[in-house]
Specification:
single chain, 227 residues, alpha/beta, 9-stranded parallel β-sheet
């Protein structure tokens, strides 16, 4: 997978969708239930981090359901090149890492699967861009603070960030307004009080996308294309 193809894939995956779901360590049935909640709400991208055998089973289940819906499901917490093959065999269509590891990025590229690595410092952002990456995971976003995104925009205007860690309905819009392209939420999907607020964030993005329709190139090969 080329750098341009990887960028285009995430462009398509996150087009008009400022939220993604991360379902960490929730067990198989709970993960499936929350993935369905996310999809029904309008969140297209669901990530299942891989840290246990149960997580792998959960990924397989959610990936099958996602395929029926035309939704791509990702595998998270990819911290070694050896995990890449297992994630792909379980049905992952993209990978997410908590940090930046050139060997993991290369393994993803060789296997033709997009990867979203984690960054937290200017040096890591610069290194990621040097590896040909554009979409990056800002982690842990709550600790970094919303102001971090504005500081990164100046020297790194090409970088596109997914804010991850400590995000929910109470701060999602703040981080989006600060420059994050996407905010990742998890347990918020189980809170009935937060669901309407998350729906409002999604609706706002949809209205903005509609107003800008026809301006600029269309999305790349996103989750519904070959997912």
């Amino acid at each position: 997978m080329t750098d341009d193809e990887m960028c285009a894939w995430f462009d398509g995956a996150f087009d008009g969708a400022p939220l993604m779901a991360i379902l960490r360590g929730m067990g198989v049935e709970r993960t499936v239930r929350l993935a369905e909640t996310a999809w029904e709400l309008g969140i297209a991208s669901v990530e299942v981090p891989l840290q246990t055998e149960q997580d792998l089973i959960a990924l397989e289940r959610v990936a099958r359901l996602g395929e029926r819906r035309g939704r791509a499901v990702g595998a998270g917490t990819i911290v070694s090149a050896g995990q890449v093959d297992a994630a792909i065999r379980a049905g992952a269509r993209y990978l997410v890492s908590p940090g930046l590891d050139a060997a993991v990025v290369e393994a993803a590229r060789v296997n033709g699967i997009p990867i979203l690595p984690g960054v937290a410092t200017p040096s890591e952002v610069q290194a990621a861009l040097g590896l040909g990456l554009t979409w990056l995971k800002a982690f842990p976003a709550h600790w970094l603070g919303a102001e971090w995104f504005g500081h990164m925009r100046g020297p790194f205007p090409r970088a596109r960030f997914v804010a991850t860690g400590g995000m929910d309905a109470s701060n999602a819009q703040t981080f989006l307004d600060a420059g994050a392209r996407v905010v990742a939420v998890g347990s918020a999907l189980e809170d009935p009080r937060q669901l309407p607020l998350l729906a409002t964030v999604l609706a706002g993005a949809g209205a903005g996308a509609g107003a800008g329709a026809g301006a600029g190139p269309g999305p790349g090969p996103g989750p519904g294309a070959g997912a």
